Amino acid sequence: MRHGNRARYGPAVDADGHFGADVAADYDERWAELFQPDAVEPAVELLAELAGGGRALEFGVGTGRIAVPLAQRGVEVHGVDLSRAMVDQLRAKPGGAAIGVTIGDIATARVDGTFAVVFAVFNTLANLMTQAEQVACFRNAARHLEPGGCFVTEVGVPELRKLPPGQRVVPFRTSATGWAYDVYDVAEQTLTSNYVEVVDGRGEFRSFPARYAWPAELDLMAELAGLRRRERWEDWTRRPFGNESRYHVTIWEKPRG
User: Fold this and answer.
1) Is residue 15 part of a domain?
2) Which one of 10, 49, 131, 226 is least enclosed by Cβ atoms within 10 Å?
3) Which GO MF terms does the UniProt record name (predicted)?
């Protein structure tokens, strides 16, 4: 599911979860493809459209990959993140200091006021390690939404069809200097995304846990939070979601009445 781009919002290894200073320092470079215009602009366009003239709240603001350009579009943006180290990187960017940030867990942290749109991009939701925490996140989003507001997530679709009987590992990146693979625990509905890199003859290993959920399960979580699904697409360019889609961008709406 290509995790590792967001702070972990569950039992933490340290105060910053799995995204301490060592990860935050080179985060933008390590995930450079996520910062390219074709990855950022469609997301910002959709979120700005949903925000209208209202405020936006990002769950898992990180180094500001989406929050900064969204704010540059004139949208007032606030963020929540567990990792102070990641937020320090946000603060160092042009325009980053103007974005308000609440340090805390996206399932429970409270921010003053209400928002036209709350969003969690690129598997942030999956970093909550239990179903109960994920349900709490939906409820937290609903609490922060104004009537008619939207909760938007971008989440991977579990690749269980790639697992023949007896196999738990799905590789998703290989090169001469590194490889990456997901290890599934189907019984617990969790996985770890593992990254191995060799630089100048020395190896580095990083592992990030996640809890995967089917789109239909997320729809039920939204219903429990009093939200209803408005749209589901394969990606931010609004391509139709289908049987072979590896990700989905879903919008749930808070009723007006």
Assistant:
1) no
2) 49
3) methyltransferase activity
